[in-house]
Specification:
This protein is of the alpha+beta class. It has helices at 6-18, 89-100, 106-113, 117-131, 162-169, 196-207, 238-242, 262-273, 279-286, 292-302, 331-345, 379-390, 420-429, and strands at residues 23-28, 31-42, 47-58, 64-66, 133-139, 147-155, 175-182, 187-193, 217-229, 306-313, 320-328, 358-363, 367-374, 394-406. A hairpin with a 3-residue loop joins β12 and β13 (367-374).
């Protein structure tokens, strides 16, 4: 676990040498907790079982604080691991509807749930408080001439602390997400770039920064074709879009391909920050005429610049996000099980959010990358066991996301009948399901 701060890592290595059993460090709210972990295959239940015993915590300066024992010498209570917050089937319908269109009217949602508009409003208020919901619009970056990439970073020996990495990365507006990880890599970075030249410039400018260039590291840049989920844009992203605002001149008397009118830029920014902002407030804040906000929003949706007005559940008790890399090594075998994998990605979840937050095809290595919210011990092991036994022609690699350095993932309850996976299953494999709901 070399992605820990240097002092914490040194203490962790020392403690591993002193004990004869596997140790791991879990990071919660910037603190480092040491656990003895054991994983075994249970023949009776036919699943992977994991146990964890809390041993103590490691301070940022490397000091190890053992767990406290009671006078009766009872075993110290292990902190209860996070579990998915529960909701009923009505709340599931409401969350799905808001995930697909957060600006739906109360009357429309009431018609889908059988409740009154007042009851729906009360339920939504409760869900917003319980899950710390943030509404925003998902922007079609492809229409803006941008493509997604993933960078995996591994520091060879010592590594900079997470705060330093954050301060270096946050200056680049093309970076939308950065996560600290345990496993083969120390950091995962998701960014958008116009082309390979600009991508190379971004990587070069980050790596040459004096605060991190003294650390030996390996950077793996991967083209990422997003096929499920979405990464919300940081507000700094709009520094890039601001450059695309059309200014009338003799050379450019009318908008050109790839440019944005000011009101389009204003609506994209406003709806990305708060997808439920009243139109009157948008017009006042950005100096737009009366009625311009609603008209422009509808045009952006019609032109495909806005994919969806959606949400993310910021308080979801996710313990960590598992990053699973599926490398395809035998296409004949993989294609035989491809439909099974597509159906697995969009399988219903028992939690209020989808089973996967993000999925995409990768180039070099050729394969698929999945990001899966994990709520309790054993879920990742069970997922890897299923993939290993059911999807042939692939190899698996997993890392654990311990902390968000920049940005956030989109945790929502997307209606998977609108997913690309469902479309492929229907068109190529003849899958038939109920007619999708209109949102």
């Amino acid at each position: 676990m070399k992605n820990l701060p240097f002092a914490v890592h040194e203490t962790f290595v020392r403690l591993k040498k002193e004990h004869q059993f596997p140790l791991t460090v879990d990071v919660f709210n910037g603190r480092y907790y040491l656990y003895k972990r054991e994983t075994r295959w249970d023949k009776g239940s036919k699943r992977v079982l994991s146990t964890a015993e809390y041993l103590g915590k490691i301070r940022e300066d490397g000091t190890f604080i053992p767990k406290k024992h009671t006078r009766e010498k009872k075993a110290a209570r292990v902190p209860t691991p996070p579990t998915a917050l529960k909701i009923d089937h009505i709340d599931e319908k409401i969350l799905t509807h808001l995930s697909m269109n957060c600006r739906s009217t109360l009357k429309t949602i009431a018609g889908r749930t059988g409740l009154s508009a007042n009851a729906v409003e009360h339920r939504i208020a409760g869900l917003e408080k319980k899950f710390a919901i943030r509404y925003f619009c998902s922007i079609n970056y492809l229409k803006l001439g941008l493509s997604p990439y993933v960078i995996l970073i591994k520091f060879k020996d010592a590594r900079p602390d997470t705060k330093t990495v954050k301060e270096v990365l946050e200056k680049e507006p093309r970076i939308q997400l950065a996560m600290a990880t345990h496993g083969k890599y120390d950091f995962l970075v998701y960014l958008l770039a116009e082309n390979s030249t600009i991508l190379s410039d971004v990587v070069f400018n980050i790596r040459k920064n004096a605060r991190i260039n003294k650390f030996s590291s390996i950077w793996r840049v991967i083209a990422f074709d997003e096929i499920y989920g979405y990464v919300p844009f940081r507000e700094r992203f709009f520094e890039i879009l601001e450059e695309k605002i059309w200014q009338r001149s003799k050379k450019t008397p009318s908008p050109f391909h790839g440019s944005l009118k000011y009101r389009e830029y204003a609506l994209l920014k406003a709806m990305s920050i708060d997808g439920n902002m009243p139109f009157a407030e948008v017009e006042k804040e950005y100096g737009l005429g009366h009625g311009a906000a609603k008209y422009t929003l509808e045009k952006l949706k019609e032109n495909g610049l806005i994919w969806r007005q959606t949400l993310t559940l910021r308080n979801q008790n996710v313990k960590y996000d598992a990053i699973i890399s599926i490398r395809i090594i035998n296409y004949a075998k993989f294609l035989h099980d491809r439909a099974k994998l597509l159906d697995h990605i969009i399988k219903d979840s028992e939690s209020p959010i989808n089973r996967f937050a993000l999925a995409g095809n990768t180039v070099s290595p050729d394969g698929i990358m999945l990001i899966m919210p994990v709520f309790k011990d054993g879920e990742l092991e069970a997922e890897l066991e299923w993939l290993n036994s059911q999807i042939r022609g692939v190899t698996l690699e997993a890392s654990i996301g311990t902390d968000f350095v920049l940005g956030e993932l989109c945790y929502r309850r997307f209606d998977n009948s609108y997913s690309q996976q469902f479309k492929i299953l229907a068109e190529e494999y003849g899958l038939k399901r109920a007619t999708p709901i209109t949102y």
